[in-house]
Design brief:
about 10% strand, about 575 residues, two-stranded antiparallel ribbon
Amino acid sequence: MKTIFKTISVILAAVSAVSCGYLEFDETNGLRDYDGVYSYFDETKQMLTHVYSYIPQDFGAIGGAMRDCASDDAEFGDTGGVVQYMNNGSWSALNTVDDAWSLYYGIRAANEFMQSFAETDFSRFEKDPDYQNWLDQMQYFQYEARVLRVFFFFELAKRYGDIAMPLTKLDIEEANSISKTDFNDVIEYIVAECDACAPELPDSYTGVANSETGRITRGFAMALKSKALLYAASRLHNPSMDAAKWKRSAEAALDIIESGLYSLDPADKCNNPLSPEVVLARQNDVSTTFELYNFPIRFTEGMKYGSNAVMGTYPTQNLVDAFQTVNGYPVTLEASGWVSDDPEFNPARPYLNRDPRFTRTVLCNGDSFKGSVIALYKGGRDDLSVSEGGSPTGYFLRKYVQESTSFDPDSPVTNKHHWIVYRYAETLLAYAESMIEAFGSPTYTDAEFPYSAAWALNQVRANAGMPDVTVTGKDEFIEALRNEWRVEFAFEDHRFWDVRRWMIGDETQTDIYGVEITRESGSNYSYKRFLYESRTWNDKMNLYPVPQSELFKNANLAPQNPGW
């Protein structure tokens, strides 16, 4: 199936940042002058595709590290990598990490597109055999751009809280004087735009000219509204935990559930934009970079060396302990060894009979991989120093890693990596969280909310092959739900943000653990938990600092976020 991202012929121009990262770049990317670009359908469409190119993804968004390396789920192999500034507390308004200010380029591109596209006139081509095809596609262009713009607003707001929110293409003087908009007003604008655009967008582009995937749909507009309201209801932005905000979030999630547009998929969703669970995916071309960084080094045919050797994302023991047994019992590696109340758990085989999502997320000792067995025990083939490409935690990453990739120079294999921006399981967990926070009971339903929090959570668990959560207390249910967010969406750019919106960083983001494995005899091993790293946490880290360089250019971006 042809996708919108296969048609991209736009090359992003080099940009020179001024206030809000907003000016001094050419949205036409050298195609033609502005009048020329918007005089031809293909190049007009390329201008919209250029706006899509700013959709964030995380195949190593922070200096090659996945963002989860700045959470308790992972460690980055490079001890000097920029992501470590987030872990050791040395990031600041002067030393920003992942400041995401480039999203303002996407916002400017969206504003320019909407202004220019509103004036397009292709009527001179009405005799062209493709003219009706063009009209069929163009009816959605403005709405796609509007939803993309508010998506970028959301991505900025979840980082900074209050943000500048340009709604037109600004000149230099305007950009250097724009003021911030309150977080709650940003959310209200996002919600209003999603409500306005959703009815004008198709459920899918099947049957629309070219049957493209990866474009903004009604479902994604609804999903963005739901996500924005979930964040607005969370403790970081709702310190009083106003139940009305949680009810509003539940309503938005319920709208998606009752739309019937999506269904859970028991198969792996990573790299599969055609899954019935996927609402939006950013599609990319073929690449081996992610595998080069994250394959155990012996499978890279000598390609992983020097600075590449330390570029991997490595799951922590903290994350591994979040995966229950397949029977629904917790498992933890303690000082005394593996502990679980599951009568079927075998501490000599601790990675067997775990939540099926574990094997899709983590590559561990004894796993089969590319026709070989992973050996992470002391002296094993994969037990190397970090500088040699070994794992600092005793685990390798499996999620999003495509095992069929090959670095064999005689028979290389490359794969596409499609970033899942939003999938239906998120709707169900958002509904479960909103319902338990609004009503306090996992089983609460009424005429307006016919599904309970427990029902929504257990839909996700059943899809993963896990038994129901049966706890009845609010606190116990919230604990189970938060664990479900963690294991369901590990390495999908959730944990970092969830920790912040729940404001639990002081409880979770300090001690990072790994496993040390010793081979006793044959296939018998002993496992020892060890403290790999003690990190720095301060509650100011719940929001990013506004880059000082931007405050110098525009005093109206003050005040700086608290604590920075």
